């Protein structure tokens, strides 16, 4: 069986254990380890309220080499003051001591309930347990993926390979995210590994490009977390000539990374809280790039559109209402909308479409809504998912 986990690229070991944060007994602590050290880059939430793990990880990502990342689920360690910050630092120290590296060479992320102090003694014991179970096979990678989940119903994993300079490079990633997802940073906790040899500067550039085209284009409920973190570690063990400039090797790597992140984003959309299907909103003929994204986000976030999609209802009026109310420039006489490949509204007027055919399109696992604003040449897109009764149930019952 092909390994598609974060241990697929050369040079990585991973583990996931239950340490006692989650009362359910499910895995809640994960470690990924690169014994040779890795170039690393990361992106973080732009929410003004940021978790202790984000504050510590922002500092550590500046290190020339990163050897490990430790992630806990079930507790966000956000809004926990100086005690929470001290706990995040203690977790990095304990991980470092287990792996015989420096604390600043450890990245950290947390996800879960806001406002609770971490059970530090349980976590430090869990770190020792996870460190003893580190392995380089798919089982280790899968254990890691399961341990970072919160309200996710299944783990998200993806892997890509790309040829650069005669060498085969692997890129693999896992992500958690089902709710509190809005496109303004990474929208998730995501961990990516690669065996590419690439400079830290270009790794950072490639990550930002990939997140911009994928994770930052996904909205579940329009809400940005306090803990969003996306990180990538590059071991360099593929032995390709180090990517030092934006040449064809960089472009191939960047494209493969963006494709992998798009895969993870779609997996998250299809496992969003209560979701039964996802959709892509493509905006065309916008006056500016900013208008194109703003309109796409408006449609993907619009609760009435999301409810109609859940019901398989071809209610194009809600789509037109969404773009008309979001403040973008549009030409009412050229405004058009397609659901799948069928025009439901064209040049400012409804069309005589077959509602049953359009309903079937909407009821698919995935479909595309295309809106033409008729005011320019700029395009953009956003991913969304339907809004079901289960979304309310899940979030009403989520313990605080």
Keyword list:
400 residues, alpha+beta, 8-stranded mixed beta sheet, 26% strand, single chain, globular, 6-stranded mixed beta sheet, 11 helices
Characterise this structure.
It is a single chain. 34% of the residues lie in helices and 26% in strands. It is α+β, with helices and mostly antiparallel strands and 400 residues long. Strand 7 (189-194), helix 5 and strand 8 form a beta-alpha-beta unit. Helix 1 crosses helix 2. The chain is globular, with a radius of gyration of 22 Å. The protein starts with 12 loop residues before the first strand and ends with a helix.
Question: Count of DSSP E strands?
Answer: 14
Unreliable spans are none
Q: N-to-C terminal Cα separation, in Å?
A: 40 Å
**What number is the mean pLDDT?**
93
Name the helicity range.
25-40%
Radius of gyration from the alpha-carbon trace, in angstroms = 22 Å
Outline type: globular
Total of DSSP H or I helical runs spanning 4+ residues = 11
The string of secondary-structure elements, in order, is EEHEHEHHEEEHEHEHHHEEEHEEH
Strand content: 25-35%
Which structural class should the secondary elements be placed in? alpha+beta
Largest sheet: 8 strands, mixed
Give the SSE layout.
Elements: E1 13-17, E2 29-44, H1 52-60, E3 66-75, H2 81-99, E4 106-113, H3 120-132, H4 138-147, E5 156-164, E6 167-176, E7 189-194, H5 200-212, E8 229-234, H6 248-270, E9 278-286, H7 289-301, H8 303-310, H9 316-324, E10 336-339, E11 342-346, E12 349-350, H10 355-362, E13 366-372, E14 378-385, H11 389-397
Parallel strand pairs: 3-4, 7-8, 9-13
Antiparallel strand pairs: 1-2, 2-3, 2-8, 5-6, 6-7, 9-14, 10-11, 10-13, 11-12
Helix pairs in contact: 1-2, 2-3, 5-6, 7-9
């Amino acid at each position: 069986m092909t390994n598609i986990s974060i241990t697929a690229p050369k040079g990585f070991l991973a583990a996931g254990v239950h340490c006692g944060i989650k009362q359910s007994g499910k895995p809640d602590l994960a470690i990924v380890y690169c014994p040779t050290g890795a170039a690393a880059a990361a992106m973080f939430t732009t929410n003004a309220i940021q978790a202790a793990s984000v504050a510590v990880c922002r500092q550590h990502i500046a290190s020339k080499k990163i050897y490990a990342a430790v992630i806990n689920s079930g507790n966000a360690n956000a809004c926990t003051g100086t005690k929470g910050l001290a706990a995040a630092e203690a977790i990095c120290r304990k991980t470092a001591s287990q792996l015989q590296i420096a604390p600043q060479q450890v990245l950290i992320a947390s996800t879960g309930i806001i406002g609770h102090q971490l059970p530090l003694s349980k976590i430090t014991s869990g770190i020792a347990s996870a460190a003893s179970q580190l392995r380089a096979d798919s089982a280790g990678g899968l254990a890691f993926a399961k341990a970072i989940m919160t309200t996710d119903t299944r783990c998200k994993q993806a892997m890509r390979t790309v040829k650069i300079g005669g060498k085969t490079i692997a890129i693999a990633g896992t992500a958690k995210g089902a709710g509190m997802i809005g496109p303004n940073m990474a929208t998730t906790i995501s961990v990516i590994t690669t065996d590419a040899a690439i400079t830290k500067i270009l790794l950072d550039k490639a990550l930002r490009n990939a997140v911009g085209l994928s994770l930052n284009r996904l909205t579940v409920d329009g809400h940005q977390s306090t803990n969003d973190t996306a990180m990538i570690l590059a071991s360099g063990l593929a032995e390709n000539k180090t990517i030092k400039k934006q040449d064809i090797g960089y472009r191939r790597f960047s494209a493969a990374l963006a494709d992998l992140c798009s895969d993870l984003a779609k997996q998250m959309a299809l496992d969003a809280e209560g979701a039964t299907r996802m959709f892509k909103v493509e905006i065309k003929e916008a006056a500016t790039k900013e208008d194109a994204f703003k309109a796409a986000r408006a449609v993907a976030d619009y609760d009435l559109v999301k409810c109609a999609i859940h019901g398989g209802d071809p209610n194009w009026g809600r789509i037109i209402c969404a773009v008309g109310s979001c403040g973008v420039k549009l030409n009412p006489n050229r405004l058009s909308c397609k659901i799948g490949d069928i025009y439901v509204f064209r040049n400012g007027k409804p069309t005589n479409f077959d509602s049953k055919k359009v309903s079937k399109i909407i009821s698919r696992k995935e479909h595309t809504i295309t809106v033409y604003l008729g005011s320019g040449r700029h395009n953009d897109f956003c991913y969304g998912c339907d809004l079901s009764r289960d979304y309310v149930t899940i979030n009403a019952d989520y313990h605080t």
